[in-house]
Each structure stands twice: as structure tokens, then as C-alpha cells.
Amino acid sequence: MIPIVKQTYLSTVAATERVTYRCAACAVESGAVVSGVSQGYGEAMYFVGMKQAERESADQAAAGLPAALRRSIGLAGCPKCGARDPHERRKAMWSSLFRGLLAWPWVGVPLLLIAIAGIGYAVDELTLQAIGYGAAALIPFAVFVAIAARFAYRKLAREANMLVVWDDETVG
Ligand SMILES: [Zn+2]
After folding, report:
1. Hey, where are the domains in the chain?
2. Cystine design at 134: which of 25, 42, 52, 118 (Cβ 3.0–4.6 Å)?
3. Ligand 1: distance of its center to the CA of 151 in Å?
4. Taking Cα atoms as reference points, which of 65, 13, 9 lies closest to residue 42?
5. What confidence tens digit (pLDDT) does each residue in 138-167 have?
């Protein structure tokens, strides 16, 4: 067996910027100092292209920085009405759903197996009752994903809150 030698690079960059945020919900403009953190990833096999992989990870991290800043301010929510930017909110919800699917696999995987078994049973039998059982077997997994996604979303929102300092907050 040939061992696979893989070198991975992870770059993290952070930036802080002064911005003016215009709320889409109440149209109030607020000044803020916002921070964003972006990560990039590069990979080299058998020590080939290590320099390039390192550069790739750094480039990727730098390229993601504007989006990271937009996410911070968009998810922090308007200081006047509390509304989050709809676009950033939607993006955060999708990524939370994805994180929810991967969260706590020792709970999620057994529930997923139950759901798959239930669907398999429903497809095999194809009676109304079997379809009812199949649907019922889906519920624990769906509830689990919903809870995990909500948890992930709140974490994202909380992180965004910490990365934004509104002008009003610095006074007093
Ligand atoms: Zn607002």
C-alpha cells in the first residue's frame, strides 16, 4: 500500500472596516465598524505544489473577505428595527440547514437510518398505512434537523453581533 501524503493549508484573514449600512426594512442609515473573518483552503499531494497550495489558500481567504464583511453586517441586524439583511439572512439559513444536517451525527445518523428504513418500508408495502408509518419515521429526523439548524443560525447571528459595533453603541 502506498501511503498518501497530503499537505493541507488553511489560511485565515480578518479585516475591520468602517461602513455605512442602509437597512432594507426601515431605510435608516447607520455607521458601524465591522469585522469579518475569512478562511481559505489549499491542498498538495506528495509535497508537489506546496507553495502553490499555500498561495491558493491565502488567495481564497482574501477573496472571501468582502463577503465575510457583508455577512457580519447583514446578520447583525439593523440597530434601529432589528431587521437582518434579507439576502444574508437567506444565505445564513441555507448554510444553517446544511450545518444542521451534519451536526451531532451520533443523534442525526440513527434518526436518518430510522427515516430511511421507514421510507423503504413504505415503498415496499405501498399501502396507505405503510406510507403513514414511513411519514411518521421521517418526523424525528426532520425535527432534529430543524432544531440543529436553528441552533446553527442563532450561533451565526450571535457571531455577527459580536463583529459589528454600531456608532450609537460607542457613545455612552
Ligand atoms: Zn431597520
Report:
1. 6-170
2. 118
3. 24
4. 9
5. 999 999 999 999 999 999 999 999 999 999
